[in-house]
Amino acid sequence: MEQYVNKIMKMMKDEKLFAPQGGPIILAQIENEYNQIQLAYRELGDTYVQWAAKLAVGQNIRVPWIMCKQKDAPDPVYHGGTNFGRTSVVFTTTRYYDEAPLDEYALQRDPKWSHLKDLHKAINLCKKTLLTGTPGDQRLGEETEVRFYEKPGTECAAFIANNHSTMEATVNWRGQKFLLPPASISILPDCKTVVFNTQQMDEWINILKKKLINI
């Protein structure tokens, strides 16, 4: 594995494919779903994870690495795929993840598609501040917190979280009140205005309303 990783990383660096080199790769992954077998190896499983992480960081590719985040990982698949007309084994098609925001036919699967689209729009509004601002965090209550990035006097973006699984919360931050649904994060590209909340699906509701009107 080490020889393979070293070879592939060298090839990609030689071709200047990583973002700091002007290329398109902004993120790299060294492992995937290892948690499914990690416990079977006991302490050797933990040793392997640490070894793989060290191998990845040592590549010095200057983009973030992800690995083995398990159930806390971000969405790994945006578009599920099927190789139609082929089979992997008898009576089994080469089909993968038809629950993705884009399904195997490349059709939108809502509400996942609309909700994820709105999330990406909100993050895009924060991109400059996320990349250049100074990070900070603040506890607002027992189950609430805010993480922010800012360049004092110029730019600010914030993510306010309510970690309680069943109860909504109202918080005060920088002179403003914010209502947070349970188990949600609100995105504020200017640290003042909520443009997205992970529990609210406004775009999908609008789509449903239009469909009902046309029936």
UniProtKB/TrEMBL annotation:
Catalytic EC class: hydrolase
One GO term (biological process): carbohydrate metabolic process
Pfam assignment, any one: GHD
InterPro entries named among the record's database cross-references: GH, GHD, Gly_Hdrlase_35_cat, Glyco_hydro_35_CS, Glycoside_Hdrlase_35
The entry's keywords: Glycosidase, Hydrolase
Annotated Beta-galactosidase beta-sandwich domain residues: 146-200
SUPFAM superfamilies assigned to the protein according to its UniProt record, in alphabetical order: (Trans)glycosidases
Domain of life of the native organism: Eukaryota
Enzyme Commission designation: 3.2.1.23
UniProt family annotation: Belongs to the glycosyl hydrolase 35 family.
Protein's name in the database: beta-galactosidase
